[in-house]
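Predicting holo structure, zinc ion bound.
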Amino acid sequence: MRTFIKTLPARLGCQSLGVAPAPVEHLRVIGGLAECPGCGLYQHVPELQPGQLAACPRCGQHLLKRRRTAPVAAPLAFCISSAAFYLAALASSLMTLNVYGRERTVDLLTGPMELLHEGWGEAGLLVGAVTIMAPAVAIGLMFAILYAGTRPTLPNWAPGILIWYEKLRPWSMVEVYILGIFVAYTKLTDMAHVDVGPAVYLIGGLMLTMAVTDSTLDTERIWRHRKVDALTRLDDGDVVEIEYVHVDDVGMPPVERLVACPSCGLVGEMEHPVSNLHCVGACPRCGHSVWRRAPESLTRTTAYLIAAVTFYIPANLYPVMTFMRMGGGGGHTIIEGALELWSDGMIPLSLLVFFASITVPMLKIISLATMVVMTWRGSRRGLVRRTRLFRVVDMVGRWSMIDVFMISILVAVVRFNAMATVTANAGMVAFAAVVVLTLFAAWSFDPRIMWDAAGMNGELVDGLSPAVLKRHDSDTPQGPSRPAHTSAAAPRPAANMEPNQA
Ligand SMILES: [Zn+2]
Ligand SMILES: [Zn+2]
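Done. Tokens:
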């Protein structure tokens, strides 16, 4: 993918294009229009009121949300709390185990380090990356975004930071780690005396403050700070001039000429129909590479799924860990781990482990494979259900990491030589590979291609549909929105449509 255009408008400025060839094309940036990332339907979205959200009338996907809270102050307060919780959690102990008078105290770093020492470096790095590095990077990037949000116009570096934040955020798995700690704690209480350290409560606090930071951040309002560049360069090298129009003034252009930025949602109209196979160029607002559909979506998803199925077999056949106690014990697989919890009377926890470790990976593989096959066949059956299922699959995938986290904690804390020792086994690495590969499979799948393949994204026969407006605290529909020119309560967004004049 050619990315040189990314840096062009933002960093060199428009003056540097003075020696470049004269513009050969026009690109129209169209305000008041949004493409649904779930089904690819273009729709009219008016200016939202605080507390309102716009949803797709065809598949129900949320398109835009306007928060009631202060756009920078509220997330900043929670972000500072997150940083405090994070630093305190790093410095305090996670758990102390007492076996026949011998004590062992561990912290957040011990689990990944023990996995590294035992020769399971991949798993140790993965656990360290998603529980220690990713939260730190996410908090740091959030501070940078919020600082940028306080500037009168968004600095040139800010869009890249926001794009990276959105890419990295799913890798911060603090909330899943909390459950991993809980399962490990339950497994330990029947064999020894366990003291929970302050880090557990601090991680609980970190989980809440990071979630609240995300839910109070109004990315759309931050994008509005960023003015659109006056010129941009397409992927074929042509320089294009950008014109700013509102959908109410120009009407709905032909759908095959429209393309939406996958990062900031800005909709542009090209002079020619846009191919799904090539990158169009850089977004004139955020600099993200713009593709009409995620590149090679079907092929990539299929490849990740095949790899995930390959690892799924050893992940379930081989033991994930070995529990040795007073010379007895032995290795057990994921299913045996869940059954053991059941036989110990911890039925809800056993069901949770069974659901997260066995049902979720299988559900992900089967549902994504079904979506791939039905897309190949151009099937129209259950499109809305499939799109909703995709959202669920995309959301629940990270929870399968519970078992990997639990093992990393047990390996760290249960080290009493002949008395009691837990070691990790090959099954755990295979299982971690399944989780990561199914995450990649879901992220590379673009649900809009299901609708394309079924022929649902052609010419808009019924004209431009308005997005459904709801309140996001109650999710009660407020009826379809009306186009801005018929609604007094819907002023036209203008700030983000102005050219970025030097
Ligand atoms: Zn939709
Ligand atoms: Zn963009």
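Residues 36, 38-39, 41, 56, 58-59, 61 surround zinc ion (ligand 1) (CB under 6 Å).
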